[in-house]
Amino acid sequence: MAPQTGSTEKEAKPISAFPQHLTWEEIKIHNGRGQSQQQWLVIDRNVYDVSTFSKLHPGGSRVISHYAGQDATDAFVAFHSDKALVRKYLKSLLIGELAPDQPSFESNKKKSLLEDFRELRCTIEKMGLLKPSYTFFFMIFLHLLVLDIASWLMIWYFGISLVPFLVGMAFFTTAQIQMGWFQHDLGHCSVFRKPKWNRLLQIIVINVLKGLPASWWNHLHNQHHAKPNCFRKDPDLNMHPLLFSLGKTLSVELGKKKKKFMPYNYQHKYFICEYFCFLGVL
């Protein structure tokens, strides 16, 4: 009797482990804290284990770890321009998906707020407001160089008497403030299509012209946009009146007491004062 090859091959096929249906209760446990050191997150209802990958994440381990045990769909969309490329790396991290009876996000999030935000982003993209103008950014960079050079020429040519010093300081302060915002757009890869060109010009602006490391700024600012105004996760909250809070103890104590010495909704009013104070110290 001839062997039944068809049925044998069918029985020999391994049973796929996917999709593994998971609940939010199971996912929330894997937040990298407590007994479970694993880090799971959700993107478009797919569940990924980023426990090992977080250390290799190009944007830094903290940014992706802040979403452990949570839905990271909106952050994923906002941080990655080439989503097709990133999804190739996600395939090896996939461990399952949300069960059909589970919502697409945590219970503590408002559905209407998320829907409004996503609709707003789609509207902005359709209007082309996220497409950069190369002419505009070129003129910005050019006027920054002019102001910076003019500030040094003022001191070199007229000396360090009071009036030339004040005029030079005004030029220099204006240039430094504008450089901060310009490198901010470069840090978000919002100027050029290719990230490497944004990174290169950012290094020129913040490293060379401002004297600050781009990697340090990107590390902190990415966390800020990943978890804006979330205590322990947003580095911008670790501040104290006039001085930075050094160390974890002081910042934690201020966060628990909910001190409001420097409310974030008034940042635009005291940023320029910080620059003048900083230049006065120098």
TrEMBL record:
Top-level taxon of the source organism: Eukaryota
Query: Is Lipid biosynthesis among this UniProt entry's keywords?
Result: yes
MF terms from GO for this chain are:
oxidoreductase activity, acting on paired donors, with oxidation of a pair of donors resulting in the reduction of molecular oxygen to two molecules of water
Q: Where are the transmembrane segments?
A: 128-147, 153-172
Q: Which UniProt keyword terms apply here?
A: Fatty acid biosynthesis, Fatty acid metabolism, Lipid biosynthesis, Lipid metabolism, Membrane, Transmembrane, Transmembrane helix
What Pfam families would the database entry show?
A: Cyt-b5, FA_desaturase
Question: Where does the record place the Cytochrome b5 heme-binding domain?
Answer: 19-99
Checking Gene3D superfamilies in the record gives: Cytochrome b5-like heme/steroid binding domain
> Which GO terms fall under biological process for this protein?
unsaturated fatty acid biosynthetic process
Q: In which pathway does it act?
A: Lipid metabolism; polyunsaturated fatty acid biosynthesis
Q: Which InterPro entries match?
A: Cyt_B5-like_heme/steroid-bd (IPR001199), Cyt_B5-like_heme/steroid_sf (IPR036400), FA_desaturase_dom (IPR005804), Fatty_acid_desaturase (IPR012171)
What GO cellular-component annotations does this UniProt entry give?
Answer: membrane
Q: Which PANTHER family match?
A: CYTOCHROME B5 HEME-BINDING DOMAIN-CONTAINING PROTEIN (PTHR19353:SF86), FATTY ACID DESATURASE 2 (PTHR19353)
Could you identify this protein by its name?
A: Cytochrome b5 heme-binding domain-containing protein
Species: Anas platyrhynchos platyrhynchos (Northern mallard)
